[in-house]
Amino acid sequence: MQGEAARRVVITGLGTVSAIGVGTAEFLAGLRSGKSAAKPITAFDTEGFDHTTACEITDFDPGEWIHHLDPRTLGRASQFSVSAARMAVADAGLTDHDLRDLPTLISVGTTDGESRDLDHLVEVEVDQGPEQMDPVVARRVPAGRLSAAIAQELGLTRVEAVTLPTACAAGNYAIGYGFDAIRGGDVDFALCGGADALCRKTFTGFYRLGTIAPERCQPFDIDRKGILTGEGAGILLMESLESALARGARIYAEVLGYGLNCDAHHPVAPHQDSVAQCMRIALDNAEVKPEEVDFISAHGTGTKANDVTEARAIRQVFGDDNPPRTVSVKSMIGHTMGAASALAAIACSLALTEGFIPPTINHVRTDPECGLDVVPNEAVAADVKVVQNNGLAFGGNNAVVVFGKRDADWS
Fold it and tell me: How many CB atoms are closer than 10 A to CB 73?
């Protein structure tokens, strides 16, 4: 769009598959009430593990949302992403036909892709031989299906469908990709977010690292014991402000800007200066001053390495005296991997629309090394105008997105 002003980007549709609620209304209710999704794992055999709790989705029927594809041809993460996309389109007041011939982007972030199916295939290969592997399950494995299946389900013809594998920051990466595409005029609509399903591979990896909590996730608490793995999908429908106003769409929030960096400092440990730098990049891109941020949706995993490093980076950017209130929705829904920052982005959008800050549950006493107001245990009413959403991933992949409240002057 050479010679033209960049377009402003807004969120007009939300699609949510989470362990505290399927659908945005249930997700909102769970955030407001501080609902915990922690329960015993049923997704795979947990024999031999001392800790067997996760935030698993147990009330999800893909057939309720997937109308054109056979859900059995999709892995669980793809079922989540397609269902969340279907919800987001409907929530935006659009139909498949509305999108079919328009330039559209689909970007879905993930950590594991369809590793749950890979777990099963490897087990069959080891126990029974490769000739016994189910070809239907094998065809579900490519991670590209998480985005391509959305295009197939909606019948889109002018679409770019990408799956971004930047681990636990991937949802924010996907939102940033959509922001650029709409802002630059490359597409009219973007369906962006993340999806992942519980799998034995990732649970075992975190378990071997000694970071799986026995019963509950307690971000920023002095007695934290680690993460709980989770699953789900969050998909946001984004479009230009001009488009949303022209069709009279409900606007949840504006995407003000984002920042990305990768320090490659350590395979699993976050780096304070790099995290702080990413937050500054996002604030500069959004043209937001630190003092204008009303609260931060933290990565907040509930490990000492993450919580202390992230808290110090926040104080490095925002100052020690009065940093923004900082919450972790992972205390409720667990660590949903590639879906984490996407579901947190939806929480941020709802906070801006509904005028509240979701809580950090399971909180007893804040770790003095963190030194943050984490909105313990109960949501608080607040006139929220600007929210920062942090996504931090293994390998030093950081992604931060800044959201703003709908302007009352928009007609």
Answer: 16
